[in-house]
């Protein structure tokens, strides 16, 4: 089979398609024939040599995939059959023609969605669901500040926050991104390049601040985050796009807000946790992607690239232009 490969860490020019051995499903696993995968920031970091896959995970890039079940591991007795369409959260290996997965991590593809739309769901939506509900304990009536509001995770978090009855506010780097975030349900959006999002958030919340912040920026935003956090607010850090260093009185500012700073990484979580997350998401959220539901959730796709254009796809993500997900199609 062909798979995305690089021989040494570095820029997108190091990426190429390589003929590699097709994996075989072990006990409790199934083999998925991949129709589409999607790009994640983690792929850029892994390509640069800054984010090794967790122990036991495939070295091949790709944290999610959609496709069809092609083979069942020995002794598998579960509900999945050869030929079933499915989508899956992975620790790696999705950007290849085949990938093996623990059967419990497969999810059905909601009716009416294409393979490319399905490939845009697992990583962004499971992350957003986990951050809001399991980590951030979001409640109806909460105000939630979502940074990088037009990102893959951001576009999912806006819709999930709305669904639970919270008020999503976003930051983004352009008016076009803010408009799309507002169409998805954001109550307000702030262009962090043109205004102080912290002051704008305090103004919008009439001085109260937000109950929850979903923060993939980190270092460059810490002081503004703590300034606009409500008393007893939760600040969930899940990425470091704005750096890892903090210079200043973070602890005293956070303490006077009685704030909680919580961190979260999904990829390194164990199989049991991911099974629980996938089950909860499948039961509680997936039905809302249906075309017939009253409150339809939408996976937001920016561009679809044939996997042969993997270098271009990485270069595009690095420009920060995408709204929602960048999807890769695998040859069938
Ligand atoms: N912890 C976890 O479990 C987990 C899981 C999935 C993803 N993540 C993290 O979540 C983040 C979003 O992932 P994604 O795939 O959804 O991203 P994405 O779609 O590629 O969007 C990221 C956006 O962040 C904004 N941005 C980049 N650098 C910035 C900076 N220095 N300051 C402010 N904004 C910046 C850019 O939009 P603007 O135009 O608005 O600046 C960029 O388009 C990444 O950091 C990723 O690593 C974490």
TrEMBL record:
Domain of life where this protein originates: Eukaryota
InterPro entries with a match to the protein in the record: ADH-like_C, ADH-like_N, ER, GroES-like_sf, NAD(P)-bd_dom_sf, Quinone_OxRdtase_PIG3
Tagged with keyword Plastid: no
One Pfam family this sequence matches: ADH_zinc_N
CDD domains associated with the record: p53_inducible_oxidoreductase (cd05276)
Gene3D superfamilies the record matches: Medium-chain alcohol dehydrogenases, catalytic domain (3.90.180.10), NAD(P)-binding Rossmann-like Domain (3.40.50.720)
Keyword NADP part of the UniProt annotation: yes
Coiled-coil residue windows: none
UniProt domain Enoyl reductase (ER): residue ranges: 10-328
Keywords for this protein: NADP, Oxidoreductase
NCBIfam families: quinone_pig3
Record protein name field: Enoyl reductase (ER) domain-containing protein
Species in which this protein is naturally found: Rangifer tarandus platyrhynchus
């Amino acid at each position: 089979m062909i798979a995305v490969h690089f021989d040494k860490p570095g820029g997108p020019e190091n990426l190429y398609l390589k003929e590699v051995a097709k994996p075989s499903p072990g006990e409790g696993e199934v083999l998925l024939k991949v129709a589409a995968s999607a790009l994640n920031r983690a792929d850029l970091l892994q390509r640069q040599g800054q984010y090794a896959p967790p122990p036991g995970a495939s070295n091949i890039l790709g944290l999610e995939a959609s496709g069809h079940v092609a083979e069942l591991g020995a002794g598998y007795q579960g509900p999945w059959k050869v030929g079933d369409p499915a989508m899956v959260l992975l620790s790696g290996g999705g950007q290849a023609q085949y990938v093996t997965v623990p059967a419990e991590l497969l999810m059905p593809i909601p009716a009416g969605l294409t393979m490319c739309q399905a490939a845009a769901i697992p990583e962004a939506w499971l992350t957003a669901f986990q951050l809001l509900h399991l980590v951030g304990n979001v409640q109806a009536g909460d105000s939630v500040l979502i940074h990088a509001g037009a990102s893959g995770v951001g576009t999912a978090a806006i819709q999930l926050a709305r669904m639970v009855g919270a008020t999503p506010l976003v930051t983004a780097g352009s008016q076009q991104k803010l408009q799309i975030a507002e169409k998805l349900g954001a109550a307000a959006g702030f262009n962090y390049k043109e205004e102080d999002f912290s002051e704008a958030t305090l103004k919008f919340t009439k001085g109260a601040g937000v109950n929850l912040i979903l923060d993939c920026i980190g270092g460059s935003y810490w002081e503004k985050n703590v300034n606009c956090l409500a008393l007893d607010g939760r600040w969930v850090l899940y990425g470091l796009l704005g750096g890892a260093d903090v210079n200043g009185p973070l602890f005293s500012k956070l303490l006077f807000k009685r704030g909680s700073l919580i961190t979260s990484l999904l990829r390194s979580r164990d199989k049991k946790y991911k099974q629980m997350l996938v089950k909860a998401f499948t039961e509680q959220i997936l039905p809302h992607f249906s075309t017939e539901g009253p409150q339809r959730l939408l996976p937001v796709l920016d561009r679809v690239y044939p996997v042969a254009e993997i270098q271009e796809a990485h270069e595009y993500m690095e420009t920060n232009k995408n709204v929602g997900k960048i999807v890769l199609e695998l040859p069938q």
